[in-house]
Design a protein that fits this description.
about 5% strand, mainly alpha, Globin-like, single chain, two-stranded antiparallel ribbon, globular
Length: about 160
């Protein structure tokens, strides 16, 4: 694929890898990446346990505060939590759990059944920002994730 940096999974499917060529160093003292000092956002956040904790905080916030997003989820959010955890793990540069289990994420296709506009994208980000606050995500990483996740949330819009 042109313009992407892909590696192959064990099953022969392409999987994304971090392409640091276009990323500028952080302005924080000692940081070498926009997200901080570690090689990947996954490592910067603290690995597996912290990615899972972020996802759980995010879904807890949705369940407690966002009837708009809650209505899009199944009654039990266990499966949704697991899939987001798997996705974020690989997306942040950790183990490619989602790719290995489900193949390409096809985010737009998987979210197409839901009516997603600006309000829903912003609400998703509000919940994620609050989860990052609750998990005390470091400032550089938070800024990086906020930017990249906002782009993704806006990309999933399927209505005006």
């Amino acid at each position: 694929m042109r313009g992407t940096n892909l590696a192959m999974t064990r099953g022969g499917l392409p999987r994304p890898r971090w392409d640091n060529r276009d990323m500028r160093p952080s302005t924080s003292r000692g940081a070498t990446h926009p997200w901080g000092e570690q090689d990947t956002p996954y490592l910067e956040i603290g690995g597996d346990e912290e990615v899972r904790a972020l996802v759980d905080s995010f879904y807890d916030i949705i369940e407690d505060e966002s009837p708009q997003l809650r209505a899009m989820l199944p009654r039990k959010t266990t499966g949704s939590r697991q899939k987001l955890y798997e996705f974020l793990s690989g997306w942040m540069g950790g183990p490619q759990l989602y790719w290995e289990k489900h193949g390409h994420p096809r985010l737009r296709m998987r979210h197409f059944p839901f009516s997603i506009g600006d309000a829903e994208a912003e609400e998703w980000m509000r919940c994620m920002r609050k989860a990052m606050d609750e998990r005390s995500v470091p400032d550089d990483l938070r800024s990086f994730l906020d930017s990249k996740l906002s782009e993704s949330a806006l990309h999933l819009r399927n209505r005006v």
